[in-house]
Design a protein that fits this description.
The chain is of the alpha/beta class. It contains 8 helices and 7 strands; from the N terminus they run βαβαβαβαβαβαααβ.
């Protein structure tokens, strides 16, 4: 039986852990050749190992999306090996430091913007260049509920994610006539290493507070985001572009 992405090539950034890893596994399950990209060689190779163990095909490429030359090489290397780029999930991101705006340093703000906004722009730039040559492609950017609402203490992250949704919409308008769809996925709080690094899961009271922010009264799972990304990249979403899709357990509906 033919799978949704047989013969297709997908690049996933930030694929060493969490949502990126779950999405890489999901695309491989559906038949895609998966290029696993991350700043972490070890985590990326672990993801590749999991894909191969499940019967899929993947390779790992180290890439810091805040470095344009590395992003350009990621896309060029993918095309050199596979001949095309059909799907890109721009997932890589960092959380930054939680602090009120008046206490946020320029260095932290600029680093979050460099990865979560400028880095995503760089990914889209080179992906779109290749997809335009092909006349087809689908890009999904990992935004956040914090691209649609604010969260006290997360000014840099909120600014970057709001900007990313704006870029997603612009790219969708510009490239729809060229056969390319561009969407964003907007997760709620997902139980991932990013939340662990931010110190939001270690304290039971803090974790419960986060859970209670969602109408479903729980955190999301990486696999739940992965399935939506696969949908947005698929022909099932052939008339969907420029859309920031909330996958948030009812967080924004309240």
């Amino acid at each position: 039986m033919r799978r949704e992405f047989d013969g297709k090539v997908a690049v996933i950034t930030g694929a060493a852990t969490g949502i990126g890893r779950a999405t890489a596994l999901a695309f491989a399950r559906e038949g895609a050749e998966v290029v696993v990209s991350d700043v972490s060689d070890g985590g990326g190779e672990t993801t590749v190992g999991l894909i191969r163990k499940a019967g899929g095909n993947a390779r790992c490429v180290t890439c810091d999306i805040s470095k344009p030359e590395q992003v350009k090489a990621l896309v060029a290397g993918t095309v050199q090996q596979y001949g095309r780029l059909d799907v890109a999930f721009n997932n890589a991101g960092i959380e930054g430091t939680m602090a009120p705006l008046g206490q946020l340093t320029h260095e932290v703000f600029e680093r979050v913007i460099a990865v979560n906004l400028t880095g995503q722009f760089t990914c889209m730039k080179y992906e779109l260049e290749q997809m335009e040559k092909q006349g087809s492609g689908a890009i999904i950017n990992n935004a956040s509920i914090l691209g649609t609402v604010a969260f006290a203490g997360a000014g840099a992250y909120v600014a970057a994610k709001h900007g990313l949704i704006g870029l997603t919409r612009v790219a969708a308008l510009e490239y729809a006539p060229k056969g390319i769809r561009v969407n964003a996925v907007c997760p709620g709080f997902i139980e991932t290493p990013m939340l662990e690094r931010a110190g939001l899961l270690a304290d039971p009271a803090t974790k419960q507070m986060l859970e209670n922010l969602h109408a479903m009264k729980r955190l999301g799972r990486s696999e739940e985001i992965a399935e939506v990304v696969v949908f947005l990249a698929s022909e099932k979403a052939s008339f969907v572009t420029g859309h920031p899709m909330l996958v948030d357990g009812g967080y924004v509906a309240q």
